[in-house]
Amino acid sequence: MSDEELDLNDIERRMKGAVEALKHEYAGLRSGRATTSLLDPVTVDVYGANMPLNQVGTVGVPEPRMLSVQVWDKSNVSAVEKAIRNSGLGLNPMIDGQLVRIPIPELNEERRAELAKVAAKYAETGRIAIRNVRRDGMDQLKKMEKDKSISEDDHKMYADEVQELTNKFVGEVDELLQAKEKEIMQV
């Protein structure tokens, strides 16, 4: 075996990245319960730049169906309110001094089914990303075998390891999807 080897750690790191991206997508998917991560995708146009909401104020959960944003600079309160309203999350914030209150409306059955479909779409995107990493690894193996830097047996062994990693991370994506669907459908 030569110096050139398949970097399984790199493949695993890239697959983990796909799972982490899915977790981040799911954090912004509303399930009817208040969670600070719901506002993570919101950016506010302040000081001539787009800034994440959590860099403009403190996000809190005072009640199970209410979020609050304590805006640090009074001049940014209306910008925060506008950013939340225009975020596409279907939220209707109310200004109370420097505090922006955001009631989380009850989800109806139709909206829950819609959100479950979105969650499934995110999961499929994650699976595709993982499969793309697998394909890159397999292509690398074929090239290494063609260049005679690994034997046919080593190729088979590495291919099995890459497939194991793929199965493991696709399984994680499926578990995340089941948990998110259960959370969305919970009344």
Automatic annotation (TrEMBL):
The keyword Protein biosynthesis applies. The lineage of its organism: Bacteria, Pseudomonadati, Pseudomonadota, Alphaproteobacteria, Kordiimonadales. One of its GO terms (biological process) is cytoplasmic translational termination. Gene3D superfamilies: 3.30.1360.40, Ribosome-recycling factor. This is Ribosome-recycling factor. Keywords: Cytoplasm, Protein biosynthesis. It comes from the Bacteria. Belongs to the RRF family. It comes from Kordiimonas lacus. GO terms for cellular component: cytosol. GO terms for molecular function: ribosomal large subunit binding. Pfam families: RRF. It is found in: Cytoplasm.
